[in-house]
Amino acid sequence: MELSDLDTAALVQRRERLAARLGSTPALLFAGAPRVRHYAANPFPFRAASHFFYLVGASIEGAALLVEGGRSVLFLPEKPADDELWHGPTPGAEAIARAVGCEVRGISALDAAISAKPVATLPCPDAEGREQQALALGRSVRAGELKGDDLHLAGAMIDIRIAHDALAVREMTSAAEAADAAHRAGMRATRPGRFERDVRAAMESTFIARGMSTSYEPIITTHGEVLHNHGHANLLSEGDLVLADVGAESLGGFASDVTRCWPVSGRFSATQRAIYEIVLEAQRRAIARVAPGVRYRDVHLESSRAIAEGLVAVGVLRGDPSEIVEVGAHALFFPHGVGHLIGMDVHDMEDLGDLAGYAAGRSRSAQFGLSYLRLDRDLAPGMAVTIEPGIYVVPAILNDPRFSALVARFVDREALARFSDVRGIRIEDDVLVTSSGQEVLTASIPKTLDEVEAAMRG
Ligand code: GLY
Ligand code: MN
Ligand code: MN
Fold first, then answer.
1. Angle at CA of residue 382, ends 381 and 384, nearest 5°
2. How far apart are the CA of 216 and the centre of ligand 2, in A?
3. pLDDT of residue 338
């Protein structure tokens, strides 16, 4: 993101909203440090911690933002004398101050600015960043141990980040547009005899051409039943389905998170069509439920019911769909939650554990499946969530002794064997809660059976 592209007024407003919630507690948010790959001069690409990035609008390594009583100061690391030799001219403090809309100082002034007062912070996701925080604050800073002022700051950040402002929606729309291009490119690049990595190259090149990157490690696999499958080495064979879970990070740091499935041959088989339609219906019903005031767990349960009904209709599950959902037997095939918050992080603010995802007084269920639900809040305008039901045939679940009673009672293994060309199907979109219902930010990406087959030809 160029400094000239920053929406200064929106950034000022974000910091003002934070300050209003913080009251007299000063807060210091760190960008974090670049992670070394092999040696210091060869780091991984740097991306600032999201809380900092959200308030500053730019990913500035080693920087820290102090928000105190309605006044913000951005502390920048001093550059080595030969920096310009290696990296060329970079914007000076004045240009940064104008673009970000706050005072800027060198980081050596930080100590004096925060000395002798308690300052709240949130742990950087990276160990190097947390070390810098601990040093600056003179106390240990660890993820998962928020208390006191830090917990207060976490609550304030969640408050402002959870309802997306116009700038965030613009960024997410741009990430969605990039995901659209990627998924179409992936569909077109798929042929028997190519490899998963060929599809990956086609998809990610659309991000690179936009100056963007992926918002998480992409999943592009013929083994969609392995939920976090990050290998890309499999050969694409006639009869396989590709599951592609690929999202972009916009130039301003916001994510899209999209999953589509398509047949290597360009034509879904009858059995693939049948299961795909069940997942699509589960997604359609879940999206239709998204509206202000609706409890997200009920959205999950709506998609679970649709999956149970669909699998009963094709004979894979037997019994009463309501009972199936109540005892959690649908989770044998749909083991994860229907989605999560999305924003600057693909699972937005999961660095704060379940603080953002679960409303006060709510906690995770102990039931298999429901226990993986990452969000259980009442939806409100401005929130963005994913809706991503799926059906997976996972040997590690179906052969697990913990579930043998459920499998014996509800699963018709003979019927399941007829769907042997389906291993995993997920359909995922990003959905913004509006004042009257919802808007699917990723709606332009081919999704129905006909749309997907047409996009593969096109
Ligand atoms: N791509 C990560 C997820 O769908 O949650
Ligand atoms: Mn997701
Ligand atoms: Mn995803």
1. 110
2. 10
3. 98
Distance separating the N- and C-terminal Cα atoms of the chain: 32
Q: Which ligand is nearest to the CA of 218?
A: 1
Q: What is the DSSP string of 299-354?
A: HHHHHHHHHHHHHHHTTSB-S-HHHHHHHTGGGGT--S-S--B-SSSSSTTGGGTT
Report which protein residue has its CA nearest ligand 1's atom 3.
Answer: 257
Report helix, strand or coil for 226.
Answer: coil
* Cβ proximity of 438 and 381 under 8 Å: no
Q: Pick the atom of ligand 1 nearest to 245's CA.
A: 1
Q: Which residues of the chain have pLDDT under 50?
A: none
pTM: 0.97
Upper half-sphere CA count for residue 381 (Cβ side, 13 Å): 6
Q: Distance (Å, rounded) from C-alpha 244 to C-alpha 267? A: 17
Residue 233 structure tokens: 């080495």
**Which of 67, 430, 378 is CA-nearest to residue 215?**
430
* Minimum-distance ligand 1 atom for the alpha carbon of 259: 4
Residue 307 CA to residue 427 CA, distance in Å, equals 13
Predicted pLDDT of residue 271: 98
Please report the pLDDT score of residue 2 as a whole number: 85
Ligand 1 first shell, C-beta below 6 A: 216, 245, 257, 340, 346, 388, 428
Provide the pLDDT for residue 143.
83
CB distance 404 to 363 below 8 Å? no
CA 433 to ligand 2 center in whole angstroms: 16
